[in-house]
Amino acid sequence: MEALMNWLEAQLADNSIFTLQTLGYYGEGLVTTVQLVFLSLIIGLVLAVPLAIGRGSRHAWLRLPIFFYCYVFRGTPLLVQLYLIYYGVVFVEGIQDTWLWLILEKPFVPALIAFTLNTAAYTTEIFRGAIKSTPRGEIEAARAYGMSWGLMMRRIVLPSAFRRALPAYGNEVIFMLHASAIASVVTIMDLTGAARFVYARFYAPFDAFLFVAAIYLCLTFAIIYFFRHLEKRLLAHLKPASG
Amino acid sequence: MIDLHGYGPRLFEGALITIELAVLSLILAILLGLATASAKMSRHWWLHRLGTLYTTIIRGVPDLVLMMLLFFGGQIGINMFTDWLYYQFDVDIFINVNEFVAGVVTIGLIFGAYMGETFRGAFLAVDSGQIEAGRAYGMSHWLVFRRIRFPQMMRHALPGLSNNWMVLLKTTALVSVIGLSDMVRVASEASKATREPFTFMIIVAAIYLLIASVSEWGFARLQKRYDIGYGEAN
Amino acid sequence: MKFQKILSIGVLGTAMIAGGANAEVRDIRIGVDVPYEPMEYRTPDGELTGFDIELGNALCAEIGIQCEWVVQGWDGIIPGLQARKYDAIMSSMTINEQRREQVLFSDPYITPPSAWFAPMDAEIGTPSDETLEGLTIGVQRGTLQDNYVTDMYGDVAEVNRYATADDMVLDMDSGRLDAVFLDFPIGKSTLLESEAGEYKVVGEKITEPVEYFGEGFGIAFRQRDQELAAAFNEALATLKENGTYDEIYAEYFGD
Question: Does ipTM surpass 0.90 in this model?
Fold first, then answer.
């Protein structure tokens, strides 16, 4: 390990920008970005499934609030949502004295909340579209088997909706990765935060931002590759028979 | 009535800047999108490659990073050029990359890539029999484009176009980070000075929703126009 | 046709020579980053004011030129100068070696120290590795305070970097920051004299080492605009002599 560090140091010796210190910032930034995006996507996904089912409900009291939530979060910039949550929580009376403040004090959790609510709204719409396009025959078949509503959802509707939603969801994942760049405006040292630090310190915009752009590009490719692979496996039965 | 602490007029100006920025970048994006779609459908392999490279890079890098690269880096790049002019030829021109121009160019560049995909799909959806029919009538390439391909392509492109516009509108908020006084910037300055983030941010959110709703209505009307001659069923 | 071309080149040439002749006393544009109270800030209706603005206007009047202020975020302020977006920067910019490689500085026009600020009830001793350990410290991104804190305490404390001083004050108010490191006059006006909360200065005011804290605030010009810098230096000396400088100083920092 030490030998590796020495080697790296020697390689970096003749450049003043990419030192071990700044590479360390980029490294930590990468970890933060991945954590933030991954966590918000997972929680958003878990929230989106019941929301998507409720969004198609016959009951207006259930359907309308979800519609309104999706409309607002999809119709306004994530940056505005982030500002509202990050600076807004501060003005909740007496919040500094509760345990909640312990987690809301750091910028990570407010950003995570904003990102999660945002992606959950988009994912809800994606799933709703997929659920709506379930072939009627599948539902009729399930009914004919005497399946209850819950069983039908679990066994028939959701699994096939997930598959149909996969390509659109892949795009949402990439969007979320790119959207996460604004975390740096609330002082989070994510990848973009690291690049802004390096830029401001060395007045070297090309080095700072091209380097980080390359990292994002690699991450994007990894996501695309992952979803292609997943689609190939899960959607194999939908492919036209080769011949 | 809501107390805006005297920030009302600046907020209004900010909203105008947001709209101007969005409309100008949309125009740039449509032009770039048409060019990209043509490049990708071109017979020349290098044009095709260029189009693919452009869309891949743009769609792989966050908007904010591209914006900063263009705004901070673009200025230095242009400096190098004008400094060279100055030292070589004693020509002292100054090219101003202000936040507004950087914003329009970046957003236009980003959405040009998305528009390219939309237009390409839409052009391919136009029935080739109609194009051949146009040719058979002795129409020139340009006339076929204007009378047959473009109007029919628009019908297929409109849903994608409207979707891109909605995303573009929200992307304009990022210019506040590089210092342009759009409505998000004004609202964030105002909420820090007055310590009332809810008041200003919720107003801004409402304006975004209003613009989105109005444009949704506008696009629905356009779609109706381009759908003339097609059944309501699809 | 050919004659016309020659003529137009001739006209262009003359215009350029004429432009070159009075380059030193032309009207200029000055870049500034707001808000940074009391050095430069805006009234709610958008008008610029502050120590830099008033001193800058007085300097321009003394030289006998018109000056226009251009607002520019701190991140892009030096590239903006080099892009000829404006001809000078007067925005609480500390003179130091790193920046000297990029720009030409006037003589320092004010030399404020930096200082640590913390909430009144905070129990931080004299700032050091031990007392700052585990705390969250706010600085403005890309400032000398950022460089100093990052290098000295980046390993023991968490450093949050902000785009503007306003953002930082808001997070200090809400309790997200344990301490901030700022130019003393800015901290005095935005924290000590603000209505928002009760704050105090922790430890001594800091001006050393010079490699971080430089020699004071200077007006920055492009390297080649030496006549312009000389004109500002001369005007600054005059204002200091005739009392105008002291008047403006008293208005913003006077006790």
Answer: no
